[in-house]
Amino acid sequence: MPLVPLAVNLFVLLSAFIAWQPWKQEITQKIFFPFGVMVLLCLSFFSISKRKLSNWPIGLFLLWSLASVFIHAHIFDNSFTWRYFNFYLMSEGFIHVLFAGVLFKLIYEYVDNLPCLIVPMMVYLGRAVYIKSLTPIFAVVICVLIYCAIKQRWFFFSWISIATTWFVYSNWQYVVMKAQARIEAWPIVFKQLSLVGASL
Question: How many domains would you assign to the chain?
């Protein structure tokens, strides 16, 4: 296996045991992803890409995530974040969005298969069940539905949709309770998005 695909599979495999442990939070988890992607980016200079990715919506999205690192952190105030700025930049949520885009580009250009992905996916869903988080579950469901629609696997699309509808109906009160916190945060997010748009 060439260098970059091997490194990406190793990175994905290690992420299951470092970044997604549900029972603790530590500095290693926060910096593993951005620094790991940096290592993969460095290794890509030793390899020849199989494809080229050029996509301006993704480019704009990543510029937005980069600007949001600074806007969302309120680093221009004399705050706790500003005093610990160097560490904060590597653990702020939007920096992970930015490096996820870089990782997507590396996988698209260099990797054909990700057999190690099954391990972190199982850990990721297990973590969601452990901490009773709906976001990871719905994220995976939406991705699978999009994949089924693109591949025109309408049988699986229908059954997954039915199962998801049944799950939401059976846990409606819990879903509403979780959504209420999101609704409170939406005005803040829209305000920050307007600030990012003004800065760009």
Answer: 1
